[in-house]
Amino acid sequence: MLHALYRWIDRNLLELGREMRLSYLPPLMVYCAAGVSGLTGIVGTFFVKDYLGLSAAFLAALGFWAGIPWALKMPIGHLVDLMWRHKAGLVYLGASLIAASLLIMIGLIGSPDAMRAVMPIEAWFVLSVLLSPVGYVMQDAVADAMTVEAVPRVDARGEPIPADTVRLMHTTMQMLGRVAIIGGTVMVSLANVAMFQGSESLPEADKVAIYLRIYELALIIPLLSVSGVLLGGFLKRREARRLAALGRNRAEIDRLLHDPEEKTAPNWWILGGSAVFVALTITVGLSGIEYGQEIIFATSFAIIGFMISRLLRELSPEAARTLLGTVVIIFAFRALPGPGAGASWWMIDELGFDQSFLSRLDLITSALTLAGLFLFRRFMAEKSIAQIVIFLTVATTALSLPIIGMFHGLHEWTAAHTGGVVDARFIAIANTALESPLGQVSMVPMLAWIANSAPPHLKATFFAVMASFTNLALSASQLGTKYLNQLHTIAREVRDAATGAITTPADYGALGELLVTVTVIALVVPLAAILLTRLAGLRSA
Asked: What is its main location (predicted)?
């Protein structure tokens, strides 16, 4: 028994540590910055709920627009391939936009009157929400390219590394990338637990002071990503000195360290299509036209789908069928709508989940998601995307049932029969503990397949186009969430900031129907997508 346990630990934990290389650290730092971005999540939820009179449907619509920059990862990724030597500049630009977004929120919380004198608080908040993803998508596109660059092509003697070893290193690199992102969320969860400790008994002014400190602490995010790029430059210079000592000439060193195996020519289909997409998005977004979001989504889908069709020509027929089947399944799985902000408001108002408890819940989520990457490491490596999605679909459907039950009083019944032990918080913690390890399982196999199978001169482009398509699924999810919230209207209590009078009464009556609808869709859509790919003769990675 002990021997079997040791073998499992060795294969899933210690082996990953043995495969770690110093060259992997720069992109991992940029990925970790993305994970740390969740530091302000709880603060943002309470700030919107308590100080902004925005509806759940509006927030879902805002989430749609915030997701659009991720569709722009396609031209940004191709730009990274074209300006391979100077891609670090995009990280600096992205870090500046993230810092600007955080500084706006610091101003809104710390000096709201001064900010209101310039333009409405709601307008500032929308600007902050939209700036942030633009910065993160720039950094993420570069980090994807850095993961390819981090895997060495020659060994310590300057000899080419065998293809099987390179494939293993790519898988390890992508696994570590997920670990870095989730590790960042664990760190911020710990910070939130510490910051919100005992906050439930504090007066509102002291809570606002905590909100402000958390946003100030979040300024470490752009510093972390910039530090990763600086470390990457240092390691390149060190590797250049090592290769020079082995007798390589300057041209050869330059080729190995700074150039992909093949030169990248501008793909005008990608650049031109992206220019059309940007122009249309800005025009429709500013025009206020009815069904503007739907127009943007349909156009985005058509453009990105066309780009994928062009990129599939770079692959063998078998690899093209595999990639196409994979993205269809992943898109369906990630496009599932959620209940929206109303479910969080209900938990805060009706179940009494305060900042302190939600921070502890986030810590459990992050820690167990990280554990899940190790727990399911072999499962992800040995099973196809279709098999993984079937497992995740059934599991997440089952795990959504306790929340539905709590809306109908499950926690009251269990508390009455267990002496108050199994109450709403107990059920939330248990449910989170079971669900969290599943969080990142679907993405690692696809990322590893792209890293290993995409043409060497188009790695960043393939990463970006596939990411654009799967991130577009999140925009579809936000649209679905908006529609469901329009169909099942939910409102939390809103009070006038000056008089304290209730301007909008709380109404969570439709939440039960909303939760059931979301659960049924989450079960049916992924399984239908898998069936359709099978009928079409497609495979999955």
From this structure: membrane
